[in-house]
Write a structure and sequence with these properties.
about 325 residues, 3-stranded antiparallel beta sheet
Amino acid sequence: LLDTLIKSVRFEGVTGLIDFYDASGDPDLRYHGDRRVGFSYTLLNFVDESQGLATVGMWSPCAVEPCPWSVQYRSMKNLTFSTADNSRPPQEAHQKISEVLMGMLLPMFNTEAAGYTTIAWSPRAGVVQALREINNKTDGLADDLLPDVKLKIAYRDSKCDASVALQAMLSLTQDAFDGKGVSAVIGAGCSGASISAAQVAQKALVPLISPSSLSPTLSNGMAYPFFLRTIPSDEFRTDCMVSVLQNLMRYSTVALVTSTDNYGVGAARAFSRAAFSVGLTISTLLSIEKDAPDFSQEHRLLLQVHARVVVLVAQ
């Protein structure tokens, strides 16, 4: 009967919500009586094995208009609960847990040119630890952080390489989690990898948050609007280096050696700008190739200029 009638009044019953209906205005439904001259309904509740069903409430029709539909229910006695021990059933809905699909783009191994060696400094392990602590709500660590969220991580190895990171970022935003893609990415570890990955992030409208990319190039919010980081850029760090060299150590001339990748180029530009602003002279500037197996030539050049201080910026 309840499935075929139009709901008009609802109140909480023993095992959920109990509904009464008025279908007198619907000619397509069979209904024996209406709100004025219909049936009376009795609400029964199971008490226990010995007492069986007990009448706990009644609904009856009105004889005279106006008659508010909602006041026609009369409670006969307090409700009991249809549980084994007559305890109150749960009154709150189960907690709804939202899944957030994340990507992790951090280095594990070097490229083939570097011999596929393991990268020991990668923050990858820290991200995995944080993920476990956030998802575990009973370990006493960050239990109140994102209480209704379960984080899922898809991992790609950036190898600290720009081209590898670009392909990996495309995979995270397009292919991860059976084609759903990710909502945000932690990475990349190295600046060169982050620069190429940030280009994909902009196209996919996916935030990219790096714990270790230092290049000042990435500070350009117009060029990389979806890139964020939790570490100061080399612009801040080089200002500190120049200040220590000049004001604390009283040096007036230094040599600068940087790698040729995006990280080295950006850091060299930042250091040179900071040094020029305070009159610190860079006597010689050398560039070293990323992953080069030998630096003997650069070493000989540094010996020739008799530099007492060498500022070295490289992966």
